[in-house]
Amino acid sequence: MTLSQDTLQMLRTETDYSGLDLGWLRVDSERGITARPGRKGLTLEEINLGSYGEVPDTSRNYTLKPRGAARRLSKPRTGVTWDAKSEVWSASIAMLYEEAIARQWSSATDIPWEQLTPLPDDLERAMCQLCTFLTQVEFIAGDLPGRWIRSISPDHYEVGLFLATQVMDEARHEDVFRKRALANGVGLLQAGFGATSLLQIQDFSEMAAILHVVAEGFVQSLFRMGELIAQNEAEKRMFRLAAQDESRHVAFGVTHLKYTLETEPERREEFHHYLDRQEGLLGTTQAGLTSGGASAESLAILLGGGKDKMDEGYKKLLAIRKRQINEYMHRLEVIGLGDRRERMHPEMRVFLDPPRN
Amino acid sequence: MAEQTSATQQAPNPLNRPIEEFFPIRTDLSWLTVERPKLPKPVPGPKGLRLRDVENEYTLQVPDVWPYVNDTPRGSIPPKHPVIPAGYTIYDKISVWSDNCIDLYEDAIYERWSSATGIPWETITPLPEITEAAIDQVCTELSEQAYLDVQVLASWLERISYGFKEVKNFLATYIFDRARHTEAFRKRALVNGGGLGIEGPGIYHRAILGALRFPDLAMALLLRALWTKLVCEAVAERPRTEVDRTLFSLVARDCNRHVAYHTGLIRHMLSKEPARAAELHFALLRHEAVFAAEAARDTSFTEALVLTLADRAAEGLALVEELRRRFVHTLLAELDAAGLTGHQERMNAKFKEYAGLTAPAAP
Question: What is the ipTM of this complex?
Answer without folding.
Answer: 0.96
